[in-house]
Amino acid sequence: MQDSAIKKNIPILIHILGWSLVGTVVFVLSPLSIGVERPMEFWIKQGFMFSMLIGIFYFNYFYLIPKFLFANKISMFLIINLVGAFTYVGILIVFDDYTNMQELMHKAFRPDATYVPKPRNLYWDVSNMLIFFMSVGFSTSIVTVQKWQADEKVRFQLEQERTNSELSYLKAQINPHFFFNTLNNIYALTNIDVEKAKTALLKLSRMMRYVLYETEKNHTLLTKELDFIKDYIELMRMRLSSKVKLDINIPEKIEEAEIAPMLLLPFIENCFKHGISSQHESKISISLEKIGNELILGTQNSIFRSTENTPEGEASGIGLVNTTRRLDLLYPGNHELKIEGTDDNHYTVLLKINLK
């Protein structure tokens, strides 16, 4: 609470210190540096000018800029400030005439010389007008920067909300496709080996718990994600024939890190959807390693075009498109994805993610 109160009062303190510095340097130290004793009327004028500039600053800050400048009434904003500048200078001229400032300053700087009235020096009026515009310019700059920062913060929050909504939508698309494919696999197993089907159901229930609880989070532990992938591979292995050779290189232990859940599965799932055939020899290679903060996933599989027209093949394709989009949203500039198809009907994926 105390830290929050301090942060809230920082802008006020900055304004107080800023005006104290300006008032001391411009309206006190600068005249004193000449070494001439000024009349009391001069210091009253200095205080009067300083008070007016503060009023001008905050009138522009709180009223003119929001009501006219940010409302795109730029012409009116400029006209009001121009009229204000002439009014400001006119008030100072009236004050000088009322206090006979010219004669008082002459006596202060030339006490031995006879005072002879002279035409008013326009240099001081122009200088005062420039000081007026400096006050307006400073307040305009500060409010503009603050508005830009506020707009940027809102834009960032909206972008975050949009990204989170899109990620939730993408995850919702991936998960049903995965379970659709996996249930089809278990259904096929029930016609071959009931005991294997039961084991597969147990693995699937463990995987479902992962999906239900971990995918609700933005990140999960890398070890949990790898355990999930291992369960999936073991589940798929149960239905493979001897014509399919698996080359799996996933470490039993890996340095812990955080990763977006269900991010790696679609690439591995794709291997089994497109890389196996009941008539032809096939091979699936999957490797995963972590070097420093970089996670590297590599897959290679054969391509059997017939699977592309099946519902499973279509689902897998959607999953890959969505996962690519998730990578762009979650790891912008921190990932590298290469997907290549070779002339000998092989499909390779190389994914590198900086998990730091």
Automatic annotation (TrEMBL):
Isomerase among keywords: no
Residues that span the membrane, as ranges: 12-36, 42-64, 76-95, 126-145
SUPFAM superfamilies listed in its UniProt record: ATPase domain of HSP90 chaperone/DNA topoisomerase II/histidine kinase (SSF55874)
InterPro entries reported in the protein's UniProt record: Bact_2-comp_sensor_kinase (IPR050640), HATPase_C_sf (IPR036890), Sig_transdc_His_kin_internal (IPR010559)
GO molecular function: phosphorelay sensor kinase activity
Cellular component, GO annotation: membrane
Pfam families given in the database record: His_kinase (PF06580)
Domain Signal transduction histidine kinase internal region: 166-243
Keyword line: Membrane, Transmembrane, Transmembrane helix
UniProt xrefs under PANTHER family: SENSOR HISTIDINE KINASE YPDA (PTHR34220:SF7)
Official protein name in the record: Putative regulator of cell autolysis
